[in-house]
Predict the 3D structure of the following.
Amino acid sequence: MSSTIWWIRRDLRLADNQTLQAALQQSEQIIPVFILDTKLLASRYIGEKRLAFLLHGLRSLDSELRKRGSRLILRQGNPLEELNRLVIESGAQNIYAEPDYSPYAVRRDTHVAKKLRVAWTGSPAILPPGLVTKPDGDPYTIFTPFSRAWKSLFSPEKIAFIPAPESISTPENLASMSVPEYPALPDYVSFEASEEEAARRLNSFTQEINPKIESYATNRDRQDLNGTSQLSPYLRFGLISARQVAATAWSAYQAAENPEGRKGAEIWLNELIWRDFYIHILYHYPQVRRENFRLPHVKWDNRPEMFQAWCEGKTGYPSVDAAMHQLVISGWMHNRSRMIVASFLTKDLLIDWRLGEEFFMQHLIDGDPAANNGGWQWTAGTGTDAAPYFRIFNPVSQSLRHDPNGVYIRQWIPELRSVPDKYIHNPWKMPLEIQKQVRCMIGVDYPFPIVDHNIARDRALRAYGKPVNRPV
């Protein structure tokens, strides 16, 4: 019987998997293989929680394959060597794989394709790089025209959802290592790594009674509310297909019964387009992983003690510290919080965005090279279509606006739980008598601010080479 290798990378699912479908059309037997790449496992960007999520996802995928008469073949090593070994062992005539677009993935896949026959199908993006371009063929570097072109090409009515196959035949004599045992994700990590859970979250966000998508436009920036889909880890590893999510967003827009619902669906779809935009940018401009896309003249002040305080959530600004505690403990961070802490690091502390980008990758379950890099450079003002240089988030006003009652702060900073609402966003202003009453002495139980925001803002404007009297 003919055999085809399904080389799994960022598509840990059976439903709506174009690569798997193409492989099934090609051969009678499918060899689902995932290779734990030793180079990636040794990367300084590796994150323990993200690795645990991946391994749990592989275990879930193997379980679903076994229900269909198949199983996951797991190998560890150099991808080319392991694939070549598997071709020899199985006699497989073809390899099917979904493309990946990070600089390392492109180099790896180019090398593999020179030695082995690989058919690239599907994409982790909704519309893959090379499809959304200017009339002259150049890539877009500004989001608004990119999104207009993207929307002109996106045809949700043409997307035929591919159900999971009922059965898959896989050769029985192929060796496979067991999925490494990895500690269960901590209780605060509220992401079950399975295709079923991804589908449940999508349904809950868009289709249940009073779905969150209807209030997404209003609640998405609220740190104290559970107002987002929290699908990012599942999109990161392809436990759900990006095109399915986009088609669902479009359907929600079409079905909305009120302006608020339509606006929520439209903004959510826009966030998915941003995800595509950053994938395209990284593919066309791989140097952004190492360099500023623009503003190369910024002189950073990388003081180790300041960076350490930021990493540990000890800056004295509750909105920053709560977010950093959420990241380190749970492996996830609210998107508004990501912007707040990134602005604080790069502009209040004048620390190179690359240090923050790496720290995020070491802790985020949804850590994705394209989205993480794009987000950091956007906030730092150094990226494509970035925030203006003078956009410097005030950590207190941001907290007042997006966590008005301090619910988010109190959840992640226990020592501030008894602080009155009046001082929860700026506890250093709390009178000494109240500090004693609530048993939170500033400078002892919780730190004083490590910088004065107003002074830091002026310093940042000078570092960016601009006058200090520009509006925030």
